[in-house]
Amino acid sequence: MARRRKKAGGAAREVDCAGASSVAFANSGVPRRDNRRTDGFGPPSLPLEAYGELIAWGCEAGILGTAEAELLARVATERPEAAAAVLATARALRTDLMRIFSALALESELPLDALATLNAGLSEILPARRLVPREDRLDWGWAGEEGALDRVLWPVIASAGEVLTSDDCRNLRQCAARGCLQLYVDRQPRPRRRFWCDMNTCGNRGKGQRYWQQRKAQEEGR
Length: 222
Hints:
- This protein is mainly alpha-helical.
- The protein has helices at 11-18, 21-27, 51-61, 66-78, 80-105, 112-125, 154-164, 199-220, and strands at residues 32-33, 41-42, 129-134, 137-142, 172-174, 183-185.
- The radius of gyration is 19 Å and the shape is globular.
């Protein structure tokens, strides 16, 4: 399991807000709320135009260690065609995850082709899963080739399997802010419910808009 920073920033914060690395990875391809822009949205947090971006995201999200990231960067430099192929796989995986998670969040029909592709990925990575000692407990780790360029995607695929086979599957939500497509796992204790992908962006904006709408209605009612 990935180690989480005490104060999350960047991709680590995205994982915190989304509730799972696979959901955060799916979100990384859609426009981000940006309060500095007049249209409200900026570019995706992860363009995936270079393999180095994938490594950096994995480090920030806590699914790659420094030594592992350095090894993958060296291998990617030595094998640029293989790195480009993994990057294409990452973009396709991200699209498939967004399609699957969005269908569940919106209670629409599951995209069976995307699910089949995810199952194929799971069948490839499951043999590499191992129980490894972590201080006073055991945790999931990985065996296999340390320099495998698709290794950064393994925890994302495993996370997707965990989300889809747990209560998280029924708690997937899409942000209530207008135009925002970000997804998250709502783990608020019932009957409370979470409506925003991130309180620092969509949440604050949504609450502000609701406040001024209520003020306007009160003034018009006088």
